[in-house]
Amino acid sequence: MEQVMKDAKARMDKSIEALRAELAKIRSGKATTALLDGIKVDYYGTMTSINQVGNLTVLDSHTLSFTPWDKSMVIPVDKAILEANLGFNPISDGTNLKIPIPPLNEERRKELVKLVKKFGEDTKVAIRNIRRDANEHLKRENKEKKISEDQLKDAEHKVQKLTDDHIHLIDDILKHKEKEILEV
């Protein structure tokens, strides 16, 4: 029974971390290196994440800087950022790239809020699926006479409390991200 609870908590925590990682990629008008995490560049025949071919840093709240370890990578990285269609227009000085982050317009902010809510809802569904799996496992243990009816009810209450706590955490994360996106 304890193992079922530990497993459910670990899986729910992973879902929350996945949500946070996904939300970090969403622009809020502020520069963050996570905005470019998904971009890959051809590095000597291998598609490689741009943060593995150079240093990506935040210069100020509206500018990122990329310094490649190999100077020949400036043009391919520039091209990869443009092709990613994120609305960024890198500026090259031959050895480095400066990536200005344009301010978000109201329409784009609303689209991003909808996207954030969708990610949140998907994560809530994942949490509820984990709850269902845990409860099914507990019921199986009850049928096999490994736990009593009272233990089953107690465990189901604990699983529900764990689920409620994680759903509440998701709501808090979403509220914070929405506020961040809508902030001008």
Task: Please explain how this structure is put together.
The protein is elongated and about 70 Å long. Strand 3 and strand 4 form a beta hairpin. It folds into two domains: about 100 residues, Orthogonal Bundle (Topoisomerase I, Chain A, domain 4), CATH 1.10.132.20; about 70 residues, Gyrase A, domain 2 (2-Layer Sandwich). It is about 55% helix and about 15% strand. By secondary structure, the chain is α+β, with helices and mostly antiparallel strands. The relative contact order is 0.16.
Tag the structure with descriptive keywords.
184 residues, four-stranded antiparallel sheet, elongated, Gyrase A, domain 2, Topoisomerase I, Chain A, domain 4, alpha+beta
Number of strands: 6
**Relevant CATH superfamily of the largest domain:** Ribosome-recycling factor
Shape type:
elongated
What percentage of amino acids are in beta strands? 5-15%
Q: From the 3D coordinates, which CATH architecture of the largest domain would you assign?
A: Orthogonal Bundle
Instruction: Please summarize the sheet with the most strands.
Output: 4 strands, antiparallel
Order of helices and strands: HEEEEHEEHH
**Would you give the CATH topology of the largest domain?**
Topoisomerase I, Chain A, domain 4
Structural class: alpha+beta
Q: What is the count of DSSP helices, taking H or I runs of 4+ residues?
A: 4
What is the helix content? 55-70%
Give Rg in angstroms.
22 Å
